[in-house]
Amino acid sequence: MAKIIYAVAGEGFGHASRAHLVGQRFLDAGHEVLFVTSHRALLYLRQYYGERVKEIFGLLFDYSKGYVDPLATVWKNLSQARAGLSLNRRLFDEVYRPFQPDLVVTDFEPFSAWWAWRNRVPFISIDNEHLLIKCKLDHRLRDVFHRLTATLVVRGHYIGARAYVVTNFFEAPLRDKATVLAPPIVRPAIAALEPSDAGQIVIYATSGTHEQQWRDVLGRFPDQRFHIYGFNKHVEWKNCVFKETSTEGFALDLAAARGVIASAGLSLISECLYLRKKMLLLPLPGQYEQLINARYVEKLGLGTWSKQVSEPAVARFLGKLDEPIPRNDRILWPDNTGFLETLRTVLSRLDLPVSITI
Prior knowledge:
Shape: globular
Distance between the termini: 17 Å
CATH architecture of the largest domain: 3-Layer(aba) Sandwich
Structural class: alpha/beta
Strand order of the largest sheet: 3-2-1-4-5-6-7
CATH superfamily of the largest domain: Glycogen Phosphorylase B
Number of helices: 13
Strand content: 15-25%
Largest sheet: 7 strands, parallel
């Protein structure tokens, strides 16, 4: 059996939930697995794997203004870099080298990928961010600056992976033979739910800001009830119910929703697709990947998108909710088994003693 380091980006719930699913399948196949991550993903994975989970210095984004602030993000990471890089050196010397991994798997975690590259340890990439540089996409000329910035960030994360497994919800031509597309996955808690329609629109306000703007817009639709997450409070106001943070509560609300309003991260998009919920997506400014997701959601008839919440955007979305869910061949519907089968095929080509349970 193989020794595997599974390195996970600490920001964004999708990375951690994907690592939970895939890492467990590696363990079920008899491999020895160490999980390495930071921030919210560290807390999440330690619930399940305890001391198997090691801490690494991870990059952070600054959302304090309701969007990704580039300068604040750079400063936040630079201010912690000295202590963080010292932590990573200890991790590499005291954990990685003695462990002697046969394979490193990275879900957009750069430091472990660079360690593997420098030490000639085979590594593979599993994420959705590499969609931006590994697939041919439809880009708008007006977005050229944001596109350039995002692609530089992705390219700078790491190079030299044996394979890039890109999870995505739509078909796109590939740019090289090292890349494969795989359908998105959903966590078991979502897969166990039966979708229904209780009439409410579920909202996830990712940044937890601009509450008054939400109230002003949603209050103009008195016949529609809204359940709102992201502000971590329990308050009823007119046709709006603000709810406290609850993973289980949000999942149940999502399954019973008439529709969903949220930012355009792949994890929540995948859950909406699995439950066949139409979306109004509000991509976070500064997140070009989210802008691409939002545009393809609308292009495929899965919902609409807007730069910000507004009365026209919500009215347009509500007007399309009764249209049937499309059956477009380009859509990659969430499929945990299909994803694992794709990954197993990739692993079989590495000439390593690594298998995975499906």
